[in-house]
UniProtKB/TrEMBL annotation:
<dbReference type="InterPro" id="IPR036318">
    <property type="entry name" value="FAD-bd_PCMH-like_sf"/>
</dbReference>
<dbReference type="GO" id="GO:0051301">
    <property type="term" value="P:cell division"/>
</dbReference>
<comment type="similarity">
    <text>Belongs to the MurB family.</text>
</comment>
<dbReference type="InterPro" id="IPR006094">
    <property type="entry name" value="Oxid_FAD_bind_N"/>
</dbReference>
<keyword id="KW-0521">NADP</keyword>
<keyword id="KW-0131">Cell cycle</keyword>
<dbReference type="GO" id="GO:0008360">
    <property type="term" value="P:regulation of cell shape"/>
</dbReference>
<keyword id="KW-0285">Flavoprotein</keyword>
<dbReference type="InterPro" id="IPR036635">
    <property type="entry name" value="MurB_C_sf"/>
</dbReference>
<keyword id="KW-0560">Oxidoreductase</keyword>
<dbReference type="Pfam" id="PF01565">
    <property type="entry name" value="FAD_binding_4"/>
</dbReference>
<dbReference type="Pfam" id="PF02873">
    <property type="entry name" value="MurB_C"/>
</dbReference>
<comment type="pathway">
    <text>Cell wall biogenesis; peptidoglycan biosynthesis.</text>
</comment>
<dbReference type="InterPro" id="IPR016166">
    <property type="entry name" value="FAD-bd_PCMH"/>
</dbReference>
<dbReference type="GO" id="GO:0005829">
    <property type="term" value="C:cytosol"/>
</dbReference>
<dbReference type="GO" id="GO:0008762">
    <property type="term" value="F:UDP-N-acetylmuramate dehydrogenase activity"/>
</dbReference>
<keyword id="KW-0133">Cell shape</keyword>
Length: 373
């Protein structure tokens, strides 16, 4: 039986569409097509909001009736259980790209990789190395999205959000977003804020990129770390590097049927890192030097991909419908017929194997709905 469709009048107010085109409401609506994993069961009810006013109205309605609420953007960081979601799923499909000099404002529903392309076309620097990341703009501050030496926390100035506790729209400056590695205030309080808009301050460097911080990008481009290159060239290089790792969405490539990096890079205290280093040398030989990068608070960040590979989970690992990507060990993938439980079984196997080998517990990066590792 297919999803039931009915129309819901759009809310009144300044942001309302005066043509009163109805908001689509679906019941028993498949959610798998709204995620990059293409996994998960249906939602009891699915609303699609195309204005901030509709987003706020849907959230208020759910909160007022005590209905569980699942907010969906691009679905690129979401693992939904096979039983689906018993409540209201709200898909944010708002549009808005406003560039004023070097100041950028994006509606939460804007496709992130398209927005990056437009800033590069405008000759601005600051997010060019975040090209190709799937998902919507509203998710970027939640996860403090980062890749290839850039994080959005370095360019985000403000986040406009609906505060479900105070029932008000609030503007939160960067300093109050509590950004850290793949984390933020919004991620720490998942049931409080619904991001509506994100504001950025970019740089006019005459068409050049921000200084390249990532060794692989600089090496690929034949320059030293810290140098600037044409922003368009930096973007194209990052897209090529991501595509080579199955990290650019492609319906024909099952390596991209994933959430990108499934695990965050572990950040270890000094004692934890020394214990890990000793186990690595014991397992792999005294000459072993695991990847190590400085992290906040004097801690050390190491590579989840390295840990997974050295624990024996190589590219393409698995025999079932959920396997490690053939291009990158950090991506768990749906080969076409997987269920969420298949994916979680693989994730748990990897976590257990890495913990046994190196004493380090991996943490999943995607948000889980109705399931957990």
């Amino acid at each position: 039986m297919g999803p039931h469709v009915r129309s819901v009048p759009r809310p009144s107010g300044e942001c309302a569409d005066r043509t009163l085109v109805p908001v689509q409401e679906l019941h028993d609506a498949p959610l798998a097509p709204l995620t990059t994993f293409r996994l998960g069961g249906p939602a009891s009810r699915l609303l699609t909001a195309t204005t901030d006013a509709e987003v706020i109205e849907a959230v208020r309605e759910a909160d007022g009736s005590g209905t569980p609420l699942l907010v969906i953007g691009g679905g690129s960081n979401l693992v939904i259980g096979d039983k689906g979601f018993d409540g209201t799923a709200l898909r944010i499909a708002t549009k808005g790209f406003a560039l004023n000099g070097t100041t950028l404002e994006l509606a939460a529903g804007e496709i992130w990789t398209d927005a990056v392309a437009r800033t590069v076309e405008a000759g601005l620097a600051g997010i060019e190395c975040l090209a190709g990341i799937p998902g919507s703009a509203g998710a970027t501050p939640i996860q403090n999205v980062g890749a290839y030496g850039q994080e959005v926390s370095s360019t985000v100035t403000e986040v406009v959000a609906y505060d479900r506790h105070t029932e008000e729209t609030v503007t939160i400056p960067n300093a109050d977003c509590a950004f850290s590695y793949r984390h933020s205030r919004f991620k720490a309080e998942p049931d409080r804020f619904v991001v509506l808009r994100v504001r950025f301050e970019l740089e006019d460097a005459g068409g050049l990129s921000a200084p390249l911080r990532y060794a692989e990008t600089a090496r690929t481009m034949g320059v030293e770390q810290g140098e600037r290159v044409p922003a368009a060239a930096a973007r194209e290089t990052v897209l090529a590097l991501r595509a080579g790792k199955g990290m650019v969405l492609d319906p024909e490539d099952h390596d991209s049927w994933s959430a990108g990096s499934f695990f965050t890079n572990p950040i270890l205290e000094d004692a934890e890192y020394e214990a890990f280093l000793a186990r690595a040398k014991d397992r792999l030989g005294p000459g072993t030097t695991p990847p190590a990068f400085p992290a906040d608070g004097g801690r050390v960040k190491t590579s989840a991909a390295w840990l997974i590979d050295k624990a024996g989970f190589t590219k393409g690992y698995g025999t079932g419908p959920a396997r490690i990507s053939t291009k990158h060990t950090l991506a768990l993938t749906n080969r076409g017929e997987a269920t969420t439980e298949d994916l979680l079984a693989l994730a748990r196997e990897v976590v257990a194997g890495v913990r046994e080998a190196f004493g380090v517990t991996l943490v999943n990066e995607p948000v889980t709905v109705g399931v957990s590792l």
